[in-house]
Amino acid sequence: MWIIKTLVIVSHPEIDNSQTQQFLKKGAEDAQVIWHHVESLDEIDVGKEQKLLRQADRIVFQFPLYWYAAPYGLKKWEDEVLTRNFIYGDKTYPLEDKEFGIVVTTGMPLKDFQKGATENITLDEAMAPYRAIANLGKMKIMPLFSVPQFWYMSEDEQMQLLIDYQRYLSQKFPDSLANREEWFEDRLQQFVKELSDEDQFSGNLILDTFIQNKENLEQVNDTLKMIKEGEDE
Amino acid sequence: MWIIKTLVIVSHPEIDNSQTQQFLKKGAEDAQVIWHHVESLDEIDVGKEQKLLRQADRIVFQFPLYWYAAPYGLKKWEDEVLTRNFIYGDKTYPLEDKEFGIVVTTGMPLKDFQKGATENITLDEAMAPYRAIANLGKMKIMPLFSVPQFWYMSEDEQMQLLIDYQRYLSQKFPDSLANREEWFEDRLQQFVKELSDEDQFSGNLILDTFIQNKENLEQVNDTLKMIKEGEDE
């Protein structure tokens, strides 16, 4: 089993009062990532922060959208921690090839973030400055993960969000079918291992069924590919 | 003579050490605008700041580009001063129809701010979050004023910058020939007024010549327009 070392840099000025952040925090615990809340730091120790960044495979900025950007706490962290040499100076690139993601929560629905709609800017456009840093540091840029209007979500939608969020933190990217399957199989194996002895039997049955289904699906995919190639000739 | 009340919200963590900001500050004094440095505020008094904003005709954000955005001091100011209701809540728009500008200084040349170049983002793209606020508040958005690599500028270039900056702060927009002329004429009149008695005569000669030239130019423009209209028929 592969493990991606993910560092989540979270910015929220009142994180204890944020239902959304508390919900995501639980998901992050299950995914075994480092959850690093910048406003909780007494003082920003540049060396310590840079070391954390160096040790990570995937770095995720997570925050609520305040005036089309992160709260100022994250900008303060950026201004102090991200020294020129740490991103691109001296032709060394300490963050090169690490993955960079953004988890942004919004109070407005996604449909408002378009040209011509209320916000008149897409979330992708608003996040461009963060991606420009990652680009300068030669990082691999992941698609944005947005969480619009968490408090309107049904319980089912919240569960779906939790899984998607955990995949965003710990699944291999790109988000292909094969990578999803691998991720689910790993999680299932982990889950079965933690069952009591008497439940092990049924747990293993479920796991076997999942693996069998996965293999069947791969065969179907291969067959489809062959048919497609036949048609192309 | 019209006067535009311009409020310059300046953000720079070490403004006394910034040659560029000190240079621009002098220009702002001549243009008689309110120069408001956010990092110098002991504490942000929301009511006081909002009152300043309400009294202005033109609001300009001015800062050096740190990681494709303003220093965190401006974001802190935004997060605290720009309450929802002050921008767009309750269907009132306190900043409606005021002009919004951005003066951004950069350490890199403008040619680096393009897709495919080092920075891989345009300055316009990086500034999109600020304009989105102005857009939400129904403000009129002015084109960006960028000051790349001030310290490489020759004395002539600095003088040109100073005039352009003063025009950005106090000239009517759009930046048309007529508005430029009006601005220069006002400045010249002001200048002549302040001359000693013995210099008044030559000062007024210069002013008369300027006005005469302006009128001649307007006549030429009218003639050109007539010729153009004749061609269109």
UniProtKB/TrEMBL annotation, chains A, B:
<dbReference type="Pfam" id="PF02525">
    <property type="entry name" value="Flavodoxin_2"/>
</dbReference>
<dbReference type="InterPro" id="IPR046980">
    <property type="entry name" value="KefG/KefF"/>
</dbReference>
<dbReference type="GO" id="GO:0003955">
    <property type="term" value="F:NAD(P)H dehydrogenase (quinone) activity"/>
</dbReference>
<dbReference type="InterPro" id="IPR029039">
    <property type="entry name" value="Flavoprotein-like_sf"/>
</dbReference>
<feature type="domain" description="Flavodoxin-like fold">
    <location>
        <begin position="5"/>
        <end position="154"/>
    </location>
</feature>
<dbReference type="InterPro" id="IPR003680">
    <property type="entry name" value="Flavodoxin_fold"/>
</dbReference>
<dbReference type="GO" id="GO:0010181">
    <property type="term" value="F:FMN binding"/>
</dbReference>
<dbReference type="GO" id="GO:0009055">
    <property type="term" value="F:electron transfer activity"/>
</dbReference>
<protein>
    <submittedName>
        <fullName>NADPH-quinone reductase (Modulator of drug activity B)</fullName>
    </submittedName>
</protein>
<keyword id="KW-0560">Oxidoreductase</keyword>
